[in-house]
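Hi R.,

As promised on Friday, here is the backbone we talked about, encoded as structure tokens. Could you run it through your design pipeline when you get a chance and send me back a sequence?
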């Protein structure tokens, strides 16, 4: 999987392109940040098709590093792998449990591990994180990579006879950080108490995990749950590890306390865990960084990016902000009362020079659409502000009777940026091979060369 960010000066845009999306991904989201902490979804970046696999950003921060983060999303429900990996057992020894069958890059992996000695500990395998820790019983989690290998689970503090058990399962679209958990430490008994849990939402994975300091012949699984593994180890003195899950639909299902009935073995202490997991916000994520450099200001149309144009600004007027408050006299009082509100947005005039009559006509045409415009300065310290605005009035003048230059005074009022779901489609000729497999396919979709030109420089508006 690769992500690239390339500045394209034709319309002043950064093209964010990606390849090698995980097979389980349905679409991508693209965000931008200049500090690595605050992220903004770029225009059109809420749902980006995996084919042809790119999106253009016109609102980048000029002159500073821009990091683009591409997240691949699986919009489906949480689904288990084909089969859990085989459980590994040992006598006070490290284990390497097998990966589950059918796992794929981006899957959420959960690893359940235990050791019979209650005072013993379990080390975190490389690349994994602790999901829930009860000392000698731990649940680890990891997002599967394309080259995932079976982990080694190491134990400390045990002695001969201390059974070690480990097993892995995978789920597609699983967030490995649980939303909520509950645990219970049970006194010595034949059966195992499983704790209750209030699940805060729907479409979640509910998981029960139990460990007992004695082996068993069998356990009676609760109805409605799919067993991941029921492992009774005889490698040492004897211990058992059991876990099961269910995936909710649109109905919220809370855990009620249960008793896991155990046959065989002997009475012993045990641990019960209940966990709820939500769907993952993304499957995998990759980023790329670029520093776009501008040598002049740009006037951009977010809805029709083919109308973007560089401009020569000769003057920036005073910025004003109107008060939106009123004072009211009260009979019998000297001082009036005030009804106040936030001040209005910025208003300012700017003057743009067009070098000749053709350039003047083109500038007027680009502004005739009447859409909000994005004025982008070449750098943050520029006298030209970077803002979204509506052009309230356009006034053209010339420096002399015979002069070919035209000066356009634009009366701007700052406005809120359109939602990220409002964006324009603009492609280049280099993009055509990604859209059409053959010339015949392109000819079938586009009836003439003039229509192809319209496609490459479209002014259509896309509002999903």
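Update: got your reply. Pasting your designed sequence below so it's all in one thread:
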């Amino acid at each position: 999987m690769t992500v690239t960010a390339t500045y394209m000066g034709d319309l002043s845009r950064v093209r964010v392109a990606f390849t090698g999306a995980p097979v389980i991904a349905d679409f991508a989201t693209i965000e931008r940040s200049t500090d690595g902490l605050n992220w903004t979804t770029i225009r059109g970046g809420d749902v980006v098709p995996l084919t042809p696999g790119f999106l253009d950003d016109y609102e980048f921060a000029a002159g500073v590093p821009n990091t683009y983060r591409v997240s691949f999303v699986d919009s489906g429900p949480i689904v288990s792998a084909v089969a859990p990996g085989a459980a590994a057992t040992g006598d006070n020894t490290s284990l390497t449990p097998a990966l589950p069958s059918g796992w794929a890059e981006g899957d959420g992996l959960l690893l359940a591990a235990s050791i019979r000695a209650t005072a013993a500990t379990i080390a975190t395998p490389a690349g994994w994180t602790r999901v829930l820790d009860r000392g000698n019983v731990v649940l680890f989690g990891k997002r599967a990579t394309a080259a995932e290998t079976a982990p080694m689970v190491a134990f400390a503090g045990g002695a001969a006879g201390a059974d070690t058990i480990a097993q892995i399962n995978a789920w597609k679209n699983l967030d490995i950080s649980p939303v909520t958990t509950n645990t219970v430490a049970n006194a010595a008994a034949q059966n195992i108490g499983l704790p209750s849990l209030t699940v805060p939402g729907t479409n979640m994975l509910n998981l029960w995990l139990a460990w007992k300091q004695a082996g068993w012949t069998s356990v009676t699984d609760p109805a409605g749950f799919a067993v991941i593994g029921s492992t009774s180890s005889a490698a040492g003195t004897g211990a058992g590890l059991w876990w099961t899950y269910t995936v909710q639909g649109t109905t919220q299902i809370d855990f009620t306390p249960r008793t896991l009935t155990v046959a065989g073995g002997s009475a012993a202490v045990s641990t019960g865990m209940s966990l709820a997991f939500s769907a993952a916000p993304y499957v995998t994520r990759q980023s790329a960084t670029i520093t776009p450099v501008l040598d002049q200001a740009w006037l951009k149309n977010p809805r029709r990016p083919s109308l973007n144009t560089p401009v020569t600004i000769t003057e920036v007027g005073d910025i004003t902000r109107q008060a939106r408050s009123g004072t009211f006299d009260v009979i019998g009082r000297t001082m009036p009362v005030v009804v106040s509100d936030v001040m209005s947005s910025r208003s300012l005039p700017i003057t743009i020079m067009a070098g000749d009559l053709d350039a003047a006509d083109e500038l007027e045409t680009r502004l005739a659409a009447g859409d909000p415009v994005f004025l982008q300065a070449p750098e943050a310290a520029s006298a030209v502000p970077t803002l979204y605005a509506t052009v309230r009035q356009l006034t053209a003048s010339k420096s002399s009777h015979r002069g070919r230059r035209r000066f356009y005074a634009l009366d701007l009022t700052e406005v809120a940026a359109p939602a990220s779901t409002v964006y324009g489609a603009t492609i280049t000729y280099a993009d055509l091979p990604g859209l059409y497999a053959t010339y015949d396919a392109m000819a079938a979709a586009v009836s003439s060369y003039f229509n192809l030109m319209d496609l490459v420089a479209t002014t259509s508006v896309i509002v999903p």
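One thing I noticed while checking it: The chain has four helices and 33 strands.

Thanks again,
M.
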